[in-house]
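Most newcomers find our protein records easier to grasp once they have seen one. Nothing more is needed to start thinking about how sequence determines fold. Here is such a record, shown just as it appears in the course material:
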Amino acid sequence: MPADNSRGICVEIMGKQHQFACPADQEEGLKQAATNLDVMFRDIKQQSGMASNERALLVAALNLSHQLLTANNKIDVCQQRLGALAASLKAAANA
């Protein structure tokens, strides 16, 4: 990423400030991702009573990974359906 297009963005996660390099056009996404992670982390700590920040953060990361895999699987299914529909439309147009 070009140096002139990125900035240091400060976000709060687990009650601490963290700075990350981020392209200027992705700042809002990084802030939202950090907020989402922080909320998930805090919810896990509160609901489970976990004392370890590291363990709660690991559970949050696993939850996010599972959500991503689920979303990717849904996208794959939708792409397959769209491909089948496109093939049906093409066949109907050629008939």
